Sequence to fold (103 residues):
Amino acid sequence: MGAPAYTGGNVMSHKIVEVTYTTSAQRSAPGRFTVPAEVCSVLGIDRGSSVRIEVLSASGWHGPVVRELKSDREPQPVGEMREWMAPGETITVRVRADAAGQA
Fold:
């Protein structure tokens, strides 16, 4: 049935700005992984969006870095990201939508 409607005077709005999820690093391209479509939808991001990324791999937490999402929802890896994870490794990724100036 759902929660009763709020009838107070101050209506608060909300926006999810960070999501943590698990995925696998790509086997064929070091440092690459995809941000799932569901995560993009919840955060209101799409290709071209700048996102703040942190990665937990077997070697610990890495980041944060700010990267732009490519058309296939992959953050563009740079030098250090290639060292963060082994090909095919299960990783935990923390993505933040409001990335501007927060790395």
Observations:
- The longest helix spans residues 37-43.
- The mean pLDDT is 85.
- DSSP finds two helices and four strands in the chain.
